[in-house]
């Protein structure tokens, strides 16, 4: 199985990044990395 990021989910990631980046771009990048690196966990526990 493979996680497919929909256009809507990508827009959500951009919105999350934009919101957090208002205070810290480093924290925003870290959060997006944490969310996108969990594909294996998403597959196991949808």
Radius of gyration: 12 Å
H/E series, N to C? HHH
β-strand number: 0
Report the mean per-residue pLDDT as an integer: 92
Distance between the ends: 11 Å
Share of residues in strands: under 5%
Q: What form results from the Cα inertia axes?
A: elongated
Count of the domains: 1
Stretches where pLDDT falls below 50 for ≥5 residues? none
Please provide a written account of the structure.
The structure is a single chain. With 46 residues, this protein is mostly helical. It has one domain (7-44). It has helices at 7-21, 25-36, 39-44. Helix 1 (7-21) runs antiparallel to helix 2 (25-36).
Short description:
It contains three helices and no strands.
Name a few traits of the molecule:
46 residues; mainly alpha; 3 helices; 72% helix
Strand and helix layout:
Blueprint: H1 7-21, H2 25-36, H3 39-44
Helix pairs in contact: 1-2
């Amino acid at each position: 199985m493979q996680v497919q990021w929909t256009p809507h989910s990508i827009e959500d990631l951009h919105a999350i990044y934009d919101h957090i980046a208002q205070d810290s771009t480093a924290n925003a990048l870290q959060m997006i990395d944490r969310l996108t690196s969990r594909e294996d966990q998403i597959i196991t526990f949808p």
